[in-house]
Amino acid sequence: MCDTSKVNLAARALRAITPRVIRRFARKNDGAAAVEFAMVAAPFLALVFAILETALVFFAGQVLETAAADSARLILTGQAQKGGLDPTQFKDEVCKRVFGLFDCANGITVDVRTYSSFGSADTSKPIDSSGKLTFTPSFAPGKAGDIVVVRLLYQWPVYVSLLGLNLADLNGGKRLLMATAAFKNEPFE
Question: Where are the domains of the chain?
Fold first, then answer.
């Protein structure tokens, strides 16, 4: 009987103390800010990094567009043809116009093609349904009066994907940045 009375006494004491401990714990809010920050910090930082990466991709696309327009002018005016520029020399001219953001020597692909009409010109992204590049670059700057399409392609690495929204459109987590300039060569001859 002695053991039972001790157990009953301990149970009554625990029942008397428990509501006070719970009320005192509920009133404490010392770590509330830290807990709230921990809950919000990860999604907030992911969103910030996704915004920064998206902005960087768009900025890199604009730099590539400017380089395509500037280097295509060499073909448009006949400077590339008269100077006898080969594909490597033309790529060097492109690389002079993009710096800092790109690994130009190893990453940029230059594609220059001549077409019979603007309607037959292919300006689509050369990506198949599985995310692979599906073309072989060529260099045909044409002669005076020819319709030419200059494409610069770069595989940009994508690091942040947020809530299933991913900028990557190529295998390996990369996005194809493509700048295109379509024009009719001037009568430079």
Answer: 58-184
